[in-house]
Amino acid sequence: MTKTYVFDLETKHLAQEVGGWDYIDRLGLAAAVLLDIETDTYQRYTEQHAVELIDAIVHADRMIGFNLIRFDYTVLKPYGLTVTPPLVSKTTDLLLDIYQELGFRVSLDNLAAASFQARKSADGLQAVAWYKEGKIDEVLEYCQIDVAVTRQLWQFGKAHGHVFFEDRNGRRRAVNVNWS
């Protein structure tokens, strides 16, 4: 059976707390969620289960996410994830594909709102605050909602060959994607 996962994680720290964006590997894993596309089931992970999470990622046939290669995979490096060419080749990184097409980054929230009128439930800053307050269930729930929004964006792009975003002038624009 094929294993295709949609993946997202949340961190324990903000970039400015660890010296900036050059130190993503210092952010620490607060929570992560994998959505198994074939069974439509969510798997939730916290830092103490990082080894099981990495095992699932490494053994997946396909990984789908938003900024996986630059961000999520880098956060997991201190926990033992090695970012290899085979891992990168089985990864569909929605943000990377959009960046390569447009030449600039667009947020998941912007893309979801413009493509199918959905919004994220919070943001990464709030997730870090919840983590620091010991509200891990809120972090996991937020992460799971992000995974659901990411899957919806991927499915929209796969079905239509494009997704939409709102540009700086408030205009809805399409960007072509190839997520077959």
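The above is record 1. Record 2 follows with the same two-line structure.
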Amino acid sequence: MGKITPITGGFNDVLLTMSSREIADLCEKRHDNVMTDIKKMLKDLGLNAPDFSGAYETAQGNTYHCFELPKDLTVTLITGYRADLRYKVVKRLEELESQSQPAMLSGPQLMAAALVEADATMRAQAKEMAGMREDVEALDRIAGADGSLTITEVAKNLGIRPKDAFGWLSQNGWTYKRAGGASWLGFQSKCNAGLLEHKTTTVLRADGSERVTEQVRVTAKGLTRLAKLIPGVAKEVTS
């Protein structure tokens, strides 16, 4: 017989099907002939017959194979049948559809359902906002920290490879190298924005002479910005 099978979620998530046995009864045809018609139709449509396989049990307890067709395939099947027989099937489908409609809710019931749904939505939003607040607080702690980090230290804090950190900064207008130079330097615009800074170090050579080196470093504010910009960086960044 025709069935209304729940699928998922809401009131209208149901699958309306009609068995080949009921189609045979309504169309005054032998069930084996209807089964043959269905197999041919499914083959012509390129559909897999076992996907629509069903079974029914007789009064004697014997189980036999049948097909369970959704509404669109049921209508397709009966297109070639007589008009009066098609009409019977269509009316039966309408009857099944009317059974699948949810009962009308009264005013108090409708209000209660709306309140339940609103409460679930608010809980989900609160949970999402709590997670976002934790991320912001973690980033703010970094931004408020003193000092600066080397690019290698930045990569460690962000959970990425140093190679990827150097590459991203270079490709996205944060750092560069002078022609023939070996050291990375920060673009002035990023230094002016407080994202990068340069640290000058004096190194004593073996011969007693001094060499001045300059190193670009990422400020806490810069680390906060990078945590939001670099793809693949973990959301939770701690100082």
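Confidence is low (pLDDT under 50) at residues 2-14, 234-239.
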